[in-house]
Design goal:
About 15% of the residues lie in helices and about 35% in strands. By secondary structure, it is α+β, with helices and mostly antiparallel strands. Strands 3, 22, 23, 24, 25, 26 and 27 form a seven-stranded antiparallel beta sheet that branches. It has a six-stranded antiparallel beta barrel with strand order 10-11-12-15-14-13. The chain has a six-stranded antiparallel barrel with strand order 2-4-5-8-7-6. Strand 7 and strand 8 form a beta hairpin.
Length: about 475
């Protein structure tokens, strides 16, 4: 980790990636001068979403009133991020730090429509999560590229929700590959100068063919109050594809994905160490320690061995080797390329699952804040607890004498009303075209809306004297 800050870029069906051709992007200079870029962006926007996560701190529950909390709004926090659609049935990929500890989620499309969403899965040692849009519509998935073909200088396009400026588009190039941001033990980040700011987290990084080649996740900042300085980072889509594929396995009760375990302490080779050991190329991972009873012991690996490849593919540093091992299923036998005693050898290793009690490095599982149990009765009327305006409530919430309506005195944690940031003290003035003066008036008009099978009901509300309309979903 550097002295300056790496900041996560967020503001406070078969689950597989949509198929698409895999190809490298075009040269940056040609791409950025391309007059057809607006047409390309127009085709990409329908697959990009903005994500709002509602979080709560731990709330002290009052006996006899387990869900409706008059003070819950003080503990509420909304985090804003980005994502992109994976499948026609509404699976969306984003960053785990966007969804972590969420009570509820919603997605907003580029055309302004908003839908609730449900958390499907979160990775542990990789900053990836999947949510699903709660709707029966058919969605436009993003096309997936091949991040292994990226080169420095390739042109890229980032789309996301920076600082809550929805569906913003920035362009740049691939500045570097295989960066270590200190975010995980397996970092293999794409560095880009396309502007990434708080709220971009989880959004897609496209190549100039319109294919997703990365997931925007963080940016480098010289201070906590600084924004983009031209150094942003994205998780390669090939790494994300692996995680998402095994998230699906983890959800299938007939499967139990277990990452493999080698049982060594390794470090990346330096040029000086490579010269000391006589390697022809200055890369690989040197073994500094071996765990008792591990697969490494049984395979005859030694301290001082230098691992250069796994199953014939070069692994040039310790992060690449560790990533390859945890992306291999437990029980698999692999062939390691090893430099030992001045010559190259091949060593077969039967990898096992993680030892008992180990929680890292793993991809699946993990814990987040418990979701409160919300009984159906608490969600009647969108989770709002309503009252006629009384003199005492007028004083408590500083409601103007001339204002008439129905006052909100409680909000259900995780409810539709909470998602819309409706707080205690707000006053419902109208439901569509009708003024309301009692909770019964509100219930009657909402029931009328449901009978007419309308998807949402508009309400005119006053909050701290300011009037505005909100639309609450009726499903």
């Amino acid at each position: 980790m550097r002295s300056a800050l790496f900041r996560a870029a967020f503001a406070a069906a078969a689950l597989t990636l949509a198929p698409g051709p895999r190809a490298a992007s075009q040269a940056a200079s040609a791409a950025l001068a391309d007059p057809d870029l607006p047409d390309l962006v127009a085709t990409l926007l329908p697959s990009c979403v903005n994500i709002t996560t509602t979080r709560y701190k731990e709330v002290k529950i009052v006996e006899g009133k387990p869900v409706i909390e008059q003070d819950a709004e003080a503990d509420k926090k909304h985090a804003y991020g980005s994502g992109f659609i994976l499948t026609p049935d509404g699976y969306v990929i984003t960053n785990k730090h966007v969804t972590l500890n969420g009570i509820s989620y919603s997605v907003t499309l580029a055309d302004g429509r908003q839908f609730p969403a449900d958390l499907v899965a979160q990775a542990v040692a990789n900053d990836i999560a999947v949510i699903r849009i709660r709707s029966n519509e058919t969605w436009t998935p993003a096309r997936i590229g091949n991040s292994d073909t990226l080169r420095q200088g390739d042109a890229v396009i980032a789309i996301g929700n920076p600082v809550d400026y929805q569906s913003s588009v920035t362009t740049g190039i691939v500045s570097a590959l295989n960066r270590d941001g200190g975010l995980t033990e397996f970092d293999n980040l794409i560095q880009t100068d396309a502007a990434i700011n708080p709220g971009n987290s989880g959004g897609p990084l496209f190549n100039r063919r319109g294919e997703v080649i990365g997931i925007n996740t963080a940016f480098y900042s010289p201070g906590k109050d600084s924004g983009n300085v031209g150094i942003g980072f994205a998780i390669p889509i090939n790494d994300a594809e692996f995680v998402v594929r095994h998230m699906k396995d983890a959800l299938d009760t007939t499967k139990n994905w277990q990452p493999a375990y080698l049982g060594t302490t390794i470090q990346s080779l330096t040029p000086a160490l490579a010269a000391a050991y006589g390697l022809p190329a200055p890369w690989g991972s040197i073994i500094a320690g071996i765990n008792d009873g591990s697969p490494a012991v049984r395979a005859g690996l030694r301290v001082g061995d230098i691992i250069t490849s796994l199953d014939g593919k070069d692994r040039k540093d310790s992060r690449a080797l560790m990533r390859a091992i945890v992306e291999t299923a437990a029980g698999t036998t692999v062939t390691l390329g090893v430099w030992r005693d001045g010559k190259a050898e091949s060593v077969a290793v039967a990898l096992t699952g993680l030892p008992a009690g180990w929680t890292l490095p793993v991809y699946m599982g993990g814990t987040s804040a418990a979701k409160p149990e919300i009984p159906p009765a608490a969600l009647v009327n969108f989770g709002l607890e309503l009252s006629a305006i009384t003199p005492a409530l007028r004083t408590k919430y500083k409601i103007a004498t001339a204002l008439q309506g129905v006052v909100v005195v409680g909000v259900a944690i995780g409810s539709e009303a909470a998602n819309l940031a409706i707080d205690a003290g707000a006053v419902i003035v109208r439901v569509r075209d009708d003024a309301v003066f009692s909770p019964e008036d509100v219930l009657k008009r909402v029931a009328d809306e449901r009978r007419q099978k309308r998807p949402q009901v508009p309400m005119l509300m006053s909050n701290a004297g300011s009037l505005s309309w909100v639309a609450l979903r009726l499903d």
